[in-house]
Amino acid sequence: MATKARVAPPQLRVYLPERDLQRQFAAFMGTPARARGYPPEQGEYALIVEVAPALFAAVAANEAERAAPGVTLVDVSMIGAAGRIYMCGGTDDVLRAEREIAAVLGAVEGRDHEASTGEGPDAGP
To answer: How many Å apart are CA 113 and CA 111, to the nearest integer?
Structure first.
């Protein structure tokens, strides 16, 4: 038997802008696992965002890059419950990307979802 459940909209968990990226933090963001050949540089504007559910990190990163093609997506991680976006670039580009992330996440509404109660034909072993 299925019941109606409410699925919440995405939740912004971490929002960390770094307006003048310092050398140590640039090195942290630029580790080989994160940089993929595009390490951030000292003095750039950086942004770290964490959103749940994790899939919305990809949606937000895609829209941010579309709105601000000059931004560098250092890494987008969708592992676990929350997804993370690490980006850097010029101030104007990252600010434009920030606004787009807020807009795209704010536009997603929760919805009703059929949830299984564990009884009936849907029930597992």
So the answer is: 6
